[in-house]
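Regression check, glutathione case 187:
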Amino acid sequence: MSIKIYADPGSGSCRRVSAVVEHLNVDVEYIFIDLLAGENRTDDFLDINPTGMVPVLVNETTNEKIILSEAAAIMIYLCEKFGDTELLPRNNSRMQVLKWMFWAAEHFRQSSPIYFEEKVIAPLMGNKENIARLKEADRQIEIHAAILNSHLEHRKGIPQGQSTFPSGWSTLRTMMINQIFNRLTVD
Ligand SMILES: N[C@@H](CCC(=O)N[C@@H](CS)C(=O)NCC(=O)O)C(=O)O
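Current build output:
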């Protein structure tokens, strides 16, 4: 049985995982969980992730049975399983990569989805955007984007003009892999 990843392509957390899948050239089966339709709230889905969130990886083979939620844990699992040392090095840089993954989850990512929730989801649900929430998100993004910018300033990334936004399910690869992973790795 192949590795299954339960995901919604509209989710940034899922795209982080699919970027790694593509970079490692791993064969996975994506199972579409339509968040807007509430498919993440069914009993079957809550059985594999009681938090009711995507992504979730399920790998059941004769030698292994693992059900894993949390995008960062899934990304690390894939790198470990497929012997990657480029995205997740085995030298001192490894801890720096992990540090930025935790930092992103703990700080940067907390405020950025608020824009999506207030500007896209709220109108879809017939609700008004919450201005106070957006203002606080702005404030947080400014603080954390400044930290990220100063870290990235002198690091290699993709040459200007060469980044692309390929269409489709998995491919934010060029942008995400180069900008996030390569630039955050400390030599
Ligand atoms: N900490 C989780 C967050 C995942 C997450 O926020 N998933 C969102 C989509 S981006 C989700 O499934 N939301 C559904 C909900 O909140 O009901 C991770 O890193 O995987």
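Comparison notes: Residues 3-81 form a domain with the Glutaredoxin fold (CATH 3.40.30.10). Residues 160-187 have pLDDT under 50 and may be disordered. No diff flagged against the previous build.
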